Amino acid sequence: MHFVLFTLIFLGLVLGPGLWVKSVMARYSRPTDRYSKSGGETARELLNHLGLHDVKTEETPSGDHYDPLQKAVRLSPENFSGRSLTAVTVAAHEVGHALQDATGFRPLHWRTRLVRWVGPIEKIGAGLLMIAPFTVAVTRAPSIGLLTLLGGFLTLGSGAAVHFLTLPTEFDASFGRALPLLAERGILRNGDAPRARKLLTAAALTYVSGALTSLLNIARWWAILRR
Hints:
Layout: H1 2-27, H2 39-49, E1 56-59, E2 65-67, E3 72-75, H3 77-81, H4 85-102, H5 106-139, H6 142-184, H7 193-226
Parallel strand pairs: 1-3
Antiparallel strand pairs: 2-3
């Protein structure tokens, strides 16, 4: 009974933030013509205002993000062309990252370096977890299997660590950069500031959801290997 209750609570903590983020983003994606400028146009206006003329604005199917290597603010099709509160706010958030990059915000640079390593490391971790039982069976040395298992968990956990370390960068981009920019330029309509704050909180919490999902992945592997 306690295990079932713990599992339900854990699943709620893992899935809850992601569901809430999707709900908030969808709620303020309507009406689609709330603003005169699209998310892409808003991003361009803010970048020009900051003197970041060399930073590109692009539409992408890969999700909203700022690419510090290519110096590009990339928005999903619905946010690049859309004129909703979500589109405008998400655009400002990504411009916030561009401003961080331009001003040498160190946590952003650390995250950029870490992200390049996490993908390959997580794949290695999954491989180590898969071969751990065979290593013990072939060598008959439990210590080798334990080291392999430990290495697998550490590498899978690196994804969760990066997500958690990303949070200061996300909150700074949202509340230290995007909100002041939106206010300074008078972009938001009357009454939309609290809604924009909720959207920016949701944007940051996507990384909390990602971290918890990584932890769930570790728990799944642990359950498999215990069988």
